[in-house]
Amino acid sequence: MGNTVRQQEFREATYEDLLALPEHLTGEIINGELYTQPRPTPAHARASSALGAKYVPPFDFGDNGPGGWIILDEPELHLGDRPHIIVPDIAGWKRTRMPRLPETAWFETAPDWVCEVISPSTAGKDRVKKMPLYAEFGVQHLWLVDPAERTLEAYRLHEGQWLRIGAWVDDDIARIEPFAAVELTLTTLWSA
Predict the structure, then answer these.
(1) 54 in any annotated domain
(2) How far apart are alpha carbons 181 and 173 in whole angstroms?
(3) Are 91 and 72 in contact (CB under 8 A)?
(4) Is this structure's pTM higher than 0.85?
(5) Domain-located, residue 50
């Protein structure tokens, strides 16, 4: 008799699976699979918070900037019919596409810009699983921020594919689309 390998039956994750997670974990559902990770590290939270503090006043509130955006931390996105339930670290919608917030606790309109703050434990998921979904659902701009490497990579969607438009490191100063109207000094993103 040969060895028999039983294939485990795949069960698609549900929203109830997300709600049942312990408080110390966050989760997302991508292609029916549940992904969990612990709450972000302080370096991760610093980078994300600093970006929000930099871009919300001029682009969301219109303070000393062009306005025209809604920018939110960790919005829950329900994209597609399946749906994929993903949570970027920061996302922004042009007000022309989303003039007001939805009544639900999640968003079914894909953002125009997303930013993922990556770590060794999330980089693979962010690059291999989430980037293609963002492209599929028409997100126009994507940033990847890596606090450990002190880098920021920016991408623009071009003919359904991600085109890398630039990368910055350490203390570089940059004007990065879609927020090129405001200068960003990268040192503000890194932990003190």
Answers:
(1) yes
(2) 13
(3) yes
(4) yes
(5) yes
